[in-house]
DNA sequence: CTGAAAGCGCTTACAG
DNA sequence: CTGAAAGCGCTTACAG
């Protein structure tokens, strides 16, 4: 009973008591040097297999974990990506677009698969959101996410580029933008869904959403919408466009504005699903039936779109792919590889709100 | 032109070129020792004000940021909280309960106010979610969030307690639980909303949601529901309870199950808003009017509840307060202060789905 | 009020 | 295959 195994057992019991185990503790117990422990645990090939097994066993017993701060400091790299989520105008605490939550989930997963941690931060556009994450070595790079006024954001982006910060942005992909952007094909999406509405026999199609350079994603959707109308021989009418940001409330109010204008419309293309859902609410309250009186379509395909009544026809963005590409592009950037902005295809998801099912 | 100011200007231009500035660089430029720079920049009172200003100016010029890895290593503290979000059964990529997103937002804000960073991680209940965040010094403590099978999670929680990990959990607050829990008053919420339904003249009230120890939050809501019914003289009927997890799909299917059973019901209390929304969808498809034929109530008050048709009556959880208390409790725990589990009050938000407006 | 010294726990050349 | 040495960039006693 009295021998090495007894000795080891004793050690395993007493060591954790004096705080967290370090690689040096393990080295002593294993009778090797501390660097060897480090090598063994990181799977270096230049370590004897038997030595490695012994070290691993002890490490497991002591519940040893590499200290990230020490490791990162030494390696000058954090193994962390910061996700800066900004929304403007400032939403009420509880308002995050479900679409971004999808993105958040897929980004988290993509990071985990690359063994990166994700630091998350919600920012107002108005604050200093370049945020020093990379400067303070807390993160190796930044992912920027959010709807907001692009023109306001632009100078910040330029600043980031100038500082040499590694970042990728989700948003409209347009020529001349600072940094790398990944976005879906907003124009095509707007075009396709509008064409669908026209095919359903609707001519007077309203567009709910900002249509200016301040909101390039919405603007692209608007342009797709306008082109589809043009091709159908009935150009877009300014009186059928109502500004809206991406929230139910905004969609709700946009419909009220539309009614106030007393323009005729038998369909609505909302620049986001949340806008569409708010719009449907307002239509119902006015006794206008969806889709009989007014067909409604959105953009994003948030999980809820299938569960409103009627189900919402919409343009699906592939958030899973988007998250993967964002993370992958950022890691390439960090590694100094060349990266290009990219557009991801969209596809229509048709449901009852346009009379499609 | 040739003098100190010129010298400084030159330095400011050339220094950043050779990589990130360190406190030593600043010390050289300011003509002080490196520890003095460290003190000055952290606002230590034992630094001459003029010296401090000089140092700050140089730091700003060089865009200097304290290296978090070095600082954390030295101080043996990370300034970071890890949020472990787990959901089980495994949701499709894009499914995160909006309620938790609200929590996420409020937790992020509460962390920011305390100058803590938030590391986020989505976990399957089945994985090793104790996750080593604290062990590897990446985080000073953990916040656990998620609906899931409590009984499965319990042993993990006990493990965390045993390891001395600092953590707080959002969930049911019940005697004998390992660690600190913060939760809303699920029982009261279930009781109040059921009483409201009864007051609307509904007697046959179905409950959609798991009602067992596996899901203590739902179970508490169920108990509140049962007690309210008891008090009204019509005890809960097992045939009116249908298991459901918190998703629209699950609510949709639960209604189908209810119909299959051919039991009579004129109201539904769903254990979450998502369940309620799925239930309403199924009712609509069956031609049952809400609230005329069936009144529907949910739990959570997610932003969307106001925008479905009709608006959903529900039990509001105060996510803002919840996030603050979670973070505050965790920080107290980290500081070694005594902390108790706590229950947060709820309140009813009544809308059209129960005929209340 | 300031500086010289030590050390947080790793990883990485450099020898052997 | 393994070890002795150096050093990542800070913070914190300890002197003065």
TrEMBL record, chains A, B:
<dbReference type="InterPro" id="IPR010982">
    <property type="entry name" value="Lambda_DNA-bd_dom_sf"/>
</dbReference>
<dbReference type="InterPro" id="IPR000843">
    <property type="entry name" value="HTH_LacI"/>
</dbReference>
<dbReference type="Pfam" id="PF13377">
    <property type="entry name" value="Peripla_BP_3"/>
</dbReference>
<dbReference type="GO" id="GO:0000976">
    <property type="term" value="F:transcription cis-regulatory region binding"/>
</dbReference>
<dbReference type="Pfam" id="PF00356">
    <property type="entry name" value="LacI"/>
</dbReference>
<protein>
    <submittedName>
        <fullName>Transcriptional regulator, LacI family</fullName>
    </submittedName>
</protein>
<feature type="domain" description="HTH lacI-type">
    <location>
        <begin position="21"/>
        <end position="75"/>
    </location>
</feature>
<dbReference type="InterPro" id="IPR028082">
    <property type="entry name" value="Peripla_BP_I"/>
</dbReference>
<keyword id="KW-0804">Transcription</keyword>
<keyword id="KW-0238">DNA-binding</keyword>
<dbReference type="InterPro" id="IPR046335">
    <property type="entry name" value="LacI/GalR-like_sensor"/>
</dbReference>
<keyword id="KW-0805">Transcription regulation</keyword>
<dbReference type="GO" id="GO:0003700">
    <property type="term" value="F:DNA-binding transcription factor activity"/>
</dbReference>
């Amino acid at each position: 009973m009295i021998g090495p195994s007894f000795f080891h057992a004793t050690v395993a019991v007493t060591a954790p008591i004096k705080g967290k185990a370090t690689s040096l503790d393990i080295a002593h117990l294993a009778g090797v040097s501390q660097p060897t422990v480090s090598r063994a645990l990181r799977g270096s090939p230049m370590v004897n297999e038997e030595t490695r097994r012994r070290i691993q066993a002890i490490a497991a017993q002591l519940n040893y974990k590499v200290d990230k701060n020490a490791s990162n400091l030494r390696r000058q790299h954090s193994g962390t990506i910061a996700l800066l989520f900004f929304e403007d105008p400032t939403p009420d605490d509880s308002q995050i677009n479900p679409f971004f939550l999808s993105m958040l989930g897929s980004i988290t997963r993509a990071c985990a698969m690359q063994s990166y941690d994700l630091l998350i931060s919600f920012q107002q556009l108005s604050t200093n959101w370049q945020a020093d994450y990379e400067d303070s070595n807390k993160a190796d790079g930044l992912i920027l996410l959010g709807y907001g006024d692009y023109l306001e954001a632009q100078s910040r982006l330029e600043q980031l580029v100038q500082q040499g910060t590694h970042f990728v942005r989700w948003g409209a992909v347009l020529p001349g933008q600072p940094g790398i952007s990944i976005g879906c094909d907003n124009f095509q999406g707007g075009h396709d869904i509008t064409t669908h509405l026209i095919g359903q026999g609707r001519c007077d199609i309203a567009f709910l959403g900002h249509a200016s350079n301040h909101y390039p994603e919405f603007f692209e959707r608007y342009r797709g919408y306008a082109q589809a109308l043009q091709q159908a021989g009935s150009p877009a009418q300014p009186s059928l466009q109502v500004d809206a940001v991406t929230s139910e409330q905004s969609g709700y109010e946009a419909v009220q504005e539309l009614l106030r204008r007393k323009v005729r419309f038998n369909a609505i293309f909302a620049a986001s699903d949340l806008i569409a859902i708010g719009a449907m609410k307002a239509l119902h309250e006015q006794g206008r039936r969806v889709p009989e009186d007014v067909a409604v379509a959105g953009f994003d395909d948030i999980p809820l779109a299938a569960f409103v009544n009627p189900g919402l026809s919409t343009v699906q963005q592939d958030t899973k792919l988007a998250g993967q590409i964002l993370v992958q592009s950022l890691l390439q950037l960090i590694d100094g590889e060349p990266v290009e902005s990219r557009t991801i295809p969209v596809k229509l998801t048709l449901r009852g709100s346009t009379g499609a099912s």
